[in-house]
Amino acid sequence: MIDINSVVVSSRIRLARTLKDYVVPARLTSKEGESIINDIADIILPIGNYKLYTMEQLPALDAEIMQEKHLISANLRDNKDSGAVILSDDQTVSIMINEEDHIRAQCFLNGLALDSAYKIINDIDDRLIEKLDIAFDSTYGFLNSCITNIGTGMRASVMLFLPALTLSGKMEEVLNGLNGQGLTARGVFGEGSNANSFLYQISNSRSLGVKEKDIIDKVTGYSLKLCEAECEERKRLLASDEIKLKDKVFRAWGVLTNAYQLSADEFMRYMGELKMGIVLGFIRLKDNSLIDKLLFDALPSSLTKLSGNETLGETEENITRASFVSKTLKSVRIK
């Protein structure tokens, strides 16, 4: 039996839209940007449970935290003149305004839930299309600043935890299998990032000439194949190298709960190994979902906020991270 929940971390649907009557966001005047923000806010905020944040007024540290949590992009974070984001109270919906496109609306859900995420964000998209003049061509579909967003303007992504495939050296074969499928793989922090903590984002690589349902079905289907392959590889590794795996896991636990300093790279690496031990049953926690939350709570900006300081030097950050991670993990382990 495939344990999907031990492999799939989260799902995301993002829709990109451009307004007809405005230049691309990079060339907007402050007045034009403000007009777009107000028009979108007037549509979304009355739905309830949403709040508007402008990049101009949002404290820099809060913007950094939003970016670390993937709620906004670095591009939007840096757009102080005309950038804004509308967030739902539970932060499952993020509508970026005047990013690379005028609108980038996204929904994040735990587990393999692309259909549910699409239903939520498509309802918002319908409201925006009804009220705004969105750039659309009968032949090509939605027209956007980035050529990869022409067509449906959709990016469907699934975050997968694949330690066994990685450790066995089979990820290269898996990634090669994406070629010709219209799919791509990225690390946990998006394009250009490494797959720290054995986390990979699988998503569609094009949106032109394909339907939303086809994109969702393809990403979901390939994610399920990877779930099956990962679970089978875990069985093989346990049969052949259980002692070696346990040693790796408990060494990771030892570092994470006893180190005086812990760099971000060390933290991500050992957290991946610890999570592997949790899904294999070597270590038990009161709440396994805490591991995924901790991956973001111990990033630099979140730690700075936690410390109460305006900034943290590298050494201070590493000491703060080590203390925070140790206390958190020790408090939830079941002996």
Explain what you see.
- With 335 residues, this protein is an alpha+beta fold.
- The model has no long low-confidence stretch (mean pLDDT 93).
- It folds into 2 domains: 10-228, 2-Layer Sandwich (Creatine Kinase, Chain A, domain 2); 241-334, no CATH class.
- The protein has 11 helices and 12 strands.
- β6 and β7 (141-142) form a beta hairpin.
- The strands form 3 sheets. It has an 8-stranded antiparallel β-sheet with strand order 2-3-4-5-1-8-10-9, with helices on one face. Strands 6-7 form a two-stranded antiparallel sheet.
How many domains? The number is 2
β-strand percent reads: 15-25%
Q: How confident is the prediction overall: mean pLDDT? A: 93
Outline type: globular
Contiguous low-pLDDT stretches (5 residues minimum) are: none
Termini gap = 28 Å
Structural class: alpha+beta
Per CATH, the architecture of the largest domain is 2-Layer Sandwich
CATH topology of the largest domain: Creatine Kinase, Chain A, domain 2
Strand order within the widest beta sheet: 2-3-4-5-1-8-10-9
CATH top level of the largest domain is Alpha Beta
Q: Please compute the radius of gyration using only Cα atoms.
A: 21 Å
Order of helices and strands: EHEHHEEEHEEEHHEEHHEHHHE
Q: For the record, what is the CATH homologous superfamily label of the largest domain?
A: Glutamine synthetase/guanido kinase, catalytic domain
Query: Sheet with the most strands?
Result: 8 strands, antiparallel
- Total DSSP E strands: 12
Give the oligomeric state: single chain
Percent helix among the residues? Answer: 40-55%
Count of separate DSSP helical elements: 11
